[in-house]
């Protein structure tokens, strides 16, 4: 087997229901920046909201719920969000730019340290912070460490508390948890939500809209994210790999979009490279007879076609790079600062 393996052209996704859309200058569907902000009464508001919490607290699920589309990777595995993912949501005359940060945890590797640094950096730049805590897990050691860090990290920056997965515990447990959390930190507001089911999410979004500073909108009204399409495409493929491989493969893989070609028929050809750390990992990604990578390619291609509203030709290759976790270029592709990984 060669170092690079390509999925066959015949696996291409059928045409999406919608035709090609005009792309904004950053590659995302959208209108000119600012949208149509005239003709309605009242000032416009815009600001950044950072979502923080332990890994798997539900930040990505909440971000996708708020935006109304999938812009952040969601799996049952922890630490799947690596970079700061910004999703753009409209709430009346307010534009809320949500920053889905990597989960806050005790870092051990260079990649871990870079992810945690990105998380706290996203918090520092935000107008409002929302701390997500899982209702059924309560105040864990990790949550306690975050609570203890808030005064030093944020000063007087307002922080709201969102207790997530409320369907998993009884009401008296929720009330006690809310009291304990507010005793540990002076949250400006507490919300009981289920990001997956949507309970309480509308109330949180409405309140955040009123808390945003008066400002022109920062992005086109119909733009969903400020990530380059190349990174969104890579994240979609990485999510499919994570879901497909379950416990078989460590987190030591990454996906990069190497080329993106717009075709005359309105479709896009996307070539991606999957980097793994060991030769044995490559075989796992490929699967017997290429079965695994074909399934991953098909799932990623279909989701990309739906997201873009047009046909996508996706080609995946696998390459072994034993030291990719120590390569500066890999961190740049993930939207992380290589220097933040220094011990």
Structural summary, described in words:
33% of the residues lie in helices and 20% in strands. The protein has 343 residues and is an alpha/beta fold. It folds into two domains: 9-19 and 227-341, K homology (KH) domain (GMP Synthetase, Chain A, domain 3, 2-Layer Sandwich); 45-211, P-loop containing nucleotide triphosphate hydrolases (Rossmann fold), CATH 3.40.50. Strands 2-3-1-4-5-6 form a six-stranded mixed β-sheet, with helices on both faces. Strands 7-8-9 form a three-stranded mixed β-sheet. α6 (229-245) packs across α8. The chain is globular and about 55 Å long. Monomer. Residues 164-167 are annotated as: G4.
Main sheet attributes: strand count, strand direction, barrel closure: 6 strands, mixed
Return the CATH class of the largest domain. Answer: Alpha Beta
CATH architecture of the largest domain: 3-Layer(aba) Sandwich
Question: Average pLDDT across residues?
Answer: 76
**Helix segment tally:** 9
- SSE pattern: EHEEHEHEHEHHEEHHEH
User: Count of DSSP E strands?
Assistant: 9
Query: What spatial order of strands do you see in the largest sheet?
Result: 2-3-1-4-5-6
By helix and strand content, what is the structural category?
alpha/beta
What topology emerges from the helices and strands here?
Blueprint: E1 45-53, H1 59-67, E2 85-91, E3 94-100, H2 110-124, E4 128-134, H3 141-154, E5 159-164, H4 171-184, E6 189-192, H5 201-211, H6 229-245, E7 253-262, E8 268-276, H7 279-286, H8 291-308, E9 312-320, H9 328-333
Parallel strand pairs: 1-3, 1-4, 4-5, 5-6, 8-9
Antiparallel strand pairs: 2-3, 7-8
């Amino acid at each position: 087997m060669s170092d690079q393996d390509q999925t066959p052209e015949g696996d291409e996704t059928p045409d999406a229901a919608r035709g090609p859309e005009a792309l904004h200058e950053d590659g995302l569907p959208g209108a000119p920046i600012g949208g149509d902000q005239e003709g309605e009464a009242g000032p416009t508001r815009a600001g950044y909201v950072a979502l923080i919490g332990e890994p798997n607290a539900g930040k990505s699920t909440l971000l996708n719920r708020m935006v109304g589309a999938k812009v952040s990777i969601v799996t049952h595995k922890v630490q799947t969000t690596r970079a700061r993912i910004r999703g753009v949501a409209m709430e009346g005359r307010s534009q809320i730019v949500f920053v889905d940060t990597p989960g806050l945890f005790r870092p051990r590797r260079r990649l871990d340290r870079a992810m945690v640094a990105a998380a706290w950096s996203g918090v520092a730049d935000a107008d409002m912070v929302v701390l997500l805590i899982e209702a059924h897990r309560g105040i864990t050691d990790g949550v306690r460490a975050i609570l203890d860090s808030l005064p030093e990290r944020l000063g007087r920056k307002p922080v709201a508390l969102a207790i997530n997965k409320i369907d998993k515990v009884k009401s008296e447990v929720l009330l006690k948890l809310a009291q304990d959390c507010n005793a540990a930190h002076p949250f400006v507001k507490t919300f009981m939500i289920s990001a997956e089911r949507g309970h309480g999410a509308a109330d949180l979004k409405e309140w955040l809209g009123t808390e945003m500073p008066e400002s022109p909108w920062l992005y086109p009204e119909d733009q969903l994210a400020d990530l380059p399409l190349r990174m969104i495409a890579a994240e979609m493929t990485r999510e499919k790999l994570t879901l497909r491989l379950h416990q078989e493969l460590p987190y030591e893989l990454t996906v990069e979009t190497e080329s993106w070609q717009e075709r005359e028929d309105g479709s896009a050809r996307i070539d991606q490279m999957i980097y793994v750390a060991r030769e044995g990992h490559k075989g796992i990604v490929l699967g017997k007879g290429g079965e695994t990578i074909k399934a991953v390619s098909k799932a990623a291609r279909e989701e990309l076609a739906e997201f873009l509203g047009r046909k996508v030709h996706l080609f995946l290759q696998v390459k072994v790079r034993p030291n990719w976790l120590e390569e500066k270029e890999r961190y740049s592709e993930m939207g992380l600062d290589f220097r933040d990984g220094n011990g």
